[in-house]
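Translate sequence into structure tokens.
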Amino acid sequence: MAVSMHAEGEQDSAGPSEPRDEQGISEFVSHFGGLMAASGMPGLTGYVFALLLAQPDAELTAQQIGQALNVSPAAVSGATKYLADIGFTRRLRRPGSRRVVHALSSDDWYDALLGRSNVIEGSKRLFLEGSRAAGGVGTPAGRRLWLNAKWFTKLGDAIEREMAAWPAEREELLRGLGELDDPSPHDGPAGS
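Result follows.
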């Protein structure tokens, strides 16, 4: 997907040590958006999400999204609605403006993914039910399903440990980076 990163009204900003690479951002949006689509995110949604992730303030208007991705307003509307429904983004109105801005709900978007839809726990439960229905661990199908349940248990435990440790690790990593060029850094979009 071709991505134009010079959406109307958007200002380029440089990071603390390197200038913003619009071609690199375009490639990121194309590749990460494609990965999200291949992982099950519908249509354009992954590209809109990738585009928002790569914005300095993690927010854009529908018009800016449409221009950057060269897509119709209807396509932008469907994608932004889906992202808001799953908790990845939110719709904001600036005081005194009628324009809606689509913004990431948090820089830590994966919290919404893991908190909203506990696929791991649900999979584990279904595999255990399937194992029992297949005759238990004494049968080939029951053993296979039981082992899948054990894998999802292990995976869930590992993710839970890492998610609990991540906030402190994140803060340490950010401290190591020092101050950003932005005089008012924030933890998420729009000061969230």
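Note: DSSP finds seven helices and three strands in the chain.
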